[in-house]
Write a structure and sequence with these properties.
- The chain is of the alpha+beta class and 197 residues long.
- The protein is 30% helix and 21% strand.
- It contains six helices and eight strands.
- 27% of the residues are buried.
């Protein structure tokens, strides 16, 4: 099972119609239908709202693990519990990664880094996630900006390890904080706190 199937299964388990879920998320019923058919993914805010409404973790929603069960119907407790997917899940060759700005989730089967600059004030590398390919080429989505080659290499190595161990999602660890300008992107310098002795 993937995201669409997990969403449909949990929505039906909670006896929520597509229209009701659409109303709670302030989207169209067609959007819910597209998501359930794996023809796209919601923005991160909507994904978080879905996990709360359906009482499951984000890992469960994006997992291909068929044995995961996000319900807590048999718990007998008023307190909501959430499941987490085992790290021993079978590798699917794909992983869900949230972009550096949190506005996009990309279901990647490949990541590509590119050198983009040589300035000290701008990111030197950018990391793309590839979620599909067609006759016209690969569909690349920008995941994050990186200050140096070492950072982007560590990120790609960690993403590969996460895919190989079957993790359904990955959080960027080494992406640089950036500030967007009109036609450029600048690194945000971290201010050092001076201590007085």
């Amino acid at each position: 099972m993937g995201f669409g199937e997990n969403l449909r299964t949990m929505r039906r388990k909670k006896n929520i119609s597509q229209e009701e879920l659409a109303g709670k998320l302030n989207v169209s019923r067609q959007a819910i239908s597209r998501w359930e058919q794996d023809n796209g993914y919601p923005e991160m805010e909507k994904m978080i709202a879905l996990s709360k409404i359906l009482n499951v973790t984000l890992d469960y929603l994006v997992s291909d693990n068929e044995t995961a069960d996000g319900s807590n119907e048999d718990s007998g407790s008023e307190e909501q519990t959430q499941i987490s997917v085992s790290s021993a899940a079978a590798p699917t060759g794909r992983i869900m990664i949230r972009s550096y700005d949190g506005k996009q989730l990309v279901n990647c089967y490949k990541v590509i880094s590119m050198h983009v600059s040589g300035s000290a004030d701008t990111p030197n590398y950018v990391l793309y996630g590839v979620d599909s390919s067609s006759f016209w080429g690969e569909n690349r989505e920008m995941l994050g900006w990186y200050a140096d080659e070492e950072s982007v290499q560590k990120e790609t190595a960690d993403i590969l390890a996460a895919i190989e161990t079957g993790k359904p999602s990955y959080e960027l660890k080494y992406a640089a904080k950036v500030k967007k300008r009109f036609l450029s992107v600048e690194l945000v310098k971290e201010e050092r706190k001076e201590t007085t002795t």
